[in-house]
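Dear Dr. V.,

Thank you for agreeing to look over these. As mentioned in my earlier message, I'm a first-year student in the group and I'm still getting used to reading structure tokens, so any feedback on how I've presented them would be very welcome. I ran two proteins. I've put each sequence directly above its structure. The first is here:
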Amino acid sequence: MINNIPDIKNLDSKNFFLLAGPCVVESEKSVFEIAEQIIKITDKLKIPFVFKASYKKANRSRLDSFSGIGDIKALKILGKVKEELKIPVVTDIHSEIEAALAAAYVDILQIPAFLCRQTELLVAA
């Protein structure tokens, strides 16, 4: 399955693959800085890398906690990372309606463990 991920490098290294990035997109600048640093490390160590960031944090324990900069704005940043840095990108989704929206910008959709029993969500993804 990993061979089907576009733009993934270092597959011939037989290393584990790494999903890494910030918890949530907070700004374009910070996302690019983090992605570029991880690329330097994973290229040097020949580790296959998929950039991971949530475009929004839907599961917060406090209503006033930061949840994101806006869905479309954050997804566009993730799409820009994918296109400009030529790396695969994964983000998590929380509802059926988010599946098609997020899929337009990223390579992989992740379903949080808390939501893995929601059949409609799994089918939509």
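The second protein is here, in the same arrangement:
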Amino acid sequence: MEMKFNSFAKEHASSPPKPPILLTPVVASDPSTNPEILWHIAKHIPELRKWVIANPSADAHLLEYISQQGGPDVRHSFEVLFASYDSDI
């Protein structure tokens, strides 16, 4: 008995899955990065949190989470962010 595949299965049967996203400072600071990825970085990759702070798409809730968690250079990154707000006045 021959198994019949739907068109999606036939089309994708021989193609490998997409590779995972390589999480880098560029991804963490890119405004087009999906918010779910930014949250993943904030929760699991402390060394990239400083780059999320530099991302203009990072919302207040995400920034608050990062400020509470800390991490390498997080305090300095917030100081730079706040100084940039002061200089815009």
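From my reading of the second output: The mean pLDDT is 88. Helices lie at 7-12, 25-29, 35-44, 49-53, 60-69, 74-87. Does that match how you would interpret it?

Kind regards,
E.
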